[in-house]
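Working notes for the structural subgroup meeting. M.R. asked for a predicted model of this chain before we commit to crystallization trials. I am recording the input and output together here so anyone reviewing the notebook later can reproduce the run.

Input as submitted:
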Amino acid sequence: MSTEEKSAAPRSLAEALRVRDDVSLAALLRSRPDLITPVPTDLTQLATRAGTRASVVRALERLDRFALQTAEALAVAPDPASYGELLALMGGDEQDPAVAAALPRAAALLREQALVWGADDRLRLVRTARELLAPSPQHPSPTGLGPTVREATAGMSPGRIQDILAAVGLPSTHDAVSAVSALGGLFADRRRMAALLAELPWESREVLDRLVWGPPYGQVTHDPAAHLRALLDRGLLLPTAPGTVVLPREVALHLRAGRAHRAPEPVPPQVEAAATHRPQVVDATAAGQALAALATVDELLKEWDEGGPTVLRAGGLSVRDLKRTAVALDVPEPVAAFWVELAYGAGLIASDGEAEERYAATPAYDEWRELPPAERWARLAGTWLTATRTPGVVGGRDAKDRTLSALGPNLDRSAAPEVRHRVLALLAGLPEGASPVAESVLARLRWERPLRGPQQQRATGAGAAREDDLRSRIARWTLSEAELLGVTGRGALAAPGRALIGAPEAPRPATANDTAGPGGPGDKLPVHHHRTPPVTAPPTPAERAAATATAARLLAPLFPEPLDHVLLQADLTAVAPGPLERGLADVLGVLADVESKGGATVYRFTPGSVRRALDAGQSAADLHAFLARHSRTPVPQPLTYLIDDVARRHGRLRVGAASAYVRCDDDATLDEILADKRAAGLGLRRLAPTVLAAQADPAALLDGLRAIGFAPAAESAAGDVLIARADSHRTPPRAAPEPVPDGPPAPDDTLLAAAIRAVRAGDLASTTPRKPGPGDGEGGGEGGMPGGSLPRTGAAETLATMQAAVLTGEALWIGYVNAEGAASQRVIAPIRVEGGFVTAYDHTADEVRTYPLHRVTGVAELADDAG
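Returned structure, recorded in token form:
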């Protein structure tokens, strides 16, 4: 491209992209990854794709509030508009200095994302964005402005327009176009408009005040009142439909002192600190929560170890099963849904795939339990941070008005990982140990990603947004879930949580010696800089693994050393004053029931819990030795008696499969069972002095005899006692659910470089001028530029031109059809031609390639001035 062409103003978005350097193109593709999915063939296709409705909507939804306000102002500005006109619309007649300072960044952001193109004296909003943001009767502008005088008078009779000119004191014109221009010039003139409005009665001014900030439409009767007639006669209200009038844009801008928005928001709201704690207290509190989180997940998995709740036909947990899980964990149902979803997301539970499908622990659970506590926590926290499944929506309704169930479908919200990460990043920006005001966090998120729905369009004040929008709800859930998980402590981000998101070291709290803010030393200092977060690629798996490893390393010293003892008490309870060693906790969890949890866990010994330990293969002697070894207090006599009493009766009865049978060496015990009326439903009959047969299956027989008060043991076909183990049921290996991406993934530097190289090479092939040849028709293009069709030459001419180019070293423009039938045009420099193939340096692919000559549709020489 020549120097004159580069200096000329671009006539299209494609031309504007063509003069960008690689760094600028990379910034565009990084912020809008949908533009290279797939990679466009040239810059013209890239520009076309950047102007499609879906892509523009996606880009607008990712603008911060001030950048979106700037785009909205351009949509109601003249096309093209100068930077001065844009500044006047954003800052008003008073020229707000904060707006003036922030506007260059917003304009540069819009230009970087290809939503705006052109020099500062000719700024153009891409057509699709203007259509989305410009006012219309069906879709009011977010600015609250209406159509221009020219647009509102499009269907008005010329005579009526001349009457309006006469009413406002303007001379009549010969045509409607000049009349409309004169009226628009009057409304845009501040001095003359002030004089015109001064003539109106106060009732007319009240009507204008009601319409000035939108919506600009109103209703009138066929015989309007005098104060409305005064507005209609002067064109200050213009009819748009029978009974409907609109306030012209020029009039509204005068009444607004030139501002497109009632309250521009050039800087983001500050994230305020609600309280500040010592960092040591925050970290200790978070570590305690992390321990509780591990205990809760472990308890959940033990509940489901032998097969958990059944899977609903549509997938997920039933409401009843979620309630049972909440009772078992002693937490509210929404919190139970969070723990269930967290374990599922970490791959610790899944459906077993059996005919009667149930949820159960996976083999990954056994691997997870072998990890050190800090690493187990890091795996849970890393899963939570990146998961798109959102347990907060459990209990809500989907698009088909069906209840959303835990572990069920339709729980993925693609925005969840980004919102969680951003909330934690905002907490990381506070002084160390500071907990945020939740509403200030939500206000900041709304500024960074304002809504673009009907509520936002109807908003008349700054910061207006739905309280129940999804991003705000996810942010609230993030604050509570981070506390449950131990990422935060007392609301402040703990050191392991800071490492989890890869945040730098916490900033130093402000002191009295720091520079005072605008209001002096007594005012609150800003706790967050007034910049939008830079667009960065998401962390790679290696970076995420490094972050979780660092978080685990920081958390490990905060965990207390596990205890190897408990305190036995005479009321058949044991108190664990802290976390127990895994082996001790496992055995004690079988031997006793958890009565209460907290800083100290209380276990209670019952006949059922002791029998459970005996069923697991322990003997009475083993239990006595275990308690004596791990108790810091003497073993109470009632506990010794309880174990001996249950053990004396345990296993005297044996239940096996006949349908089922009971055998016992003591025939008196069998007599007692037969005489008991409660055993009638088991269908027992004596086969031998020491054997009873039953109609019930072995499991029902075991439960029935235990309900009566006996302690039978199950036995195998060989007569051996069957040991029931807690980990007897596992699902087949299952992969953890994959997060649902929020659009195309952000490209890495390697992909960006390759994509830019391919686009530039394709653009070279499509824009390089060529010499006209005998085969050129009307498709040859003007000025030697290639047309829309591929070059067409005969096989002999193609071969001769290729061989000549090998000798001269010249580049050629060719048409090529690949094996799939896809046609493309390329610029190549032939190196050799032999055996029906041409080997050439392909400028389009930026590499040496070999092409079959029979797939080349034609060839043309490049023009002598081709760059």
